[in-house]
């Protein structure tokens, strides 16, 4: 497979070198990522108050909006006698 490579392209890749960010920047990014990962996640409890109705209202809205198209699709498939 290596013999299939274009020598000009291989030479250009070798000329690019291996640029890397400075070690201090790399350490700062890793430290910020660790701090962000150590934060507590959102609580896994049921929402209280009116927020608990959002899912139910959303599901009902989907059913109401999808029903006409479903009725239209099923109506076109009924064989006529």
Oligomer class: single chain
**Please, what is the average pLDDT?**
78
Q: Describe the global form.
A: flat
List the helices and strands in order: HHH
Q: Please mark out the parts with pLDDT under 50 across 5 or more consecutive residues, or reply none.
A: none
Coarse structural class: mainly alpha
Task: List the total number of helices.
Answer: 3
Helix content bin: 55-70%
Let me know the largest β-sheet.
none
Q: What is Rg?
A: 30 Å
Which percent band covers the strand fraction?
Answer: under 5%
Number of strands: 0
CA distance, first residue to last residue: 66 Å
Structure description:
By secondary structure, the chain is mostly helical. The chain has a domain at 7-36. Helices cover 60% and strands 0% of the residues. The protein has three helices and no strands.
How is the secondary structure organized here?
Elements: H1 7-16, H2 23-37, H3 53-76
Q: What are its keywords?
A:
81 residues, single chain, 60% helix
Briefly say what this structure is:
By secondary structure, this protein is mainly α. 60% of the residues lie in helices and 0% in strands. The chain is flat, with a radius of gyration of 30 Å.
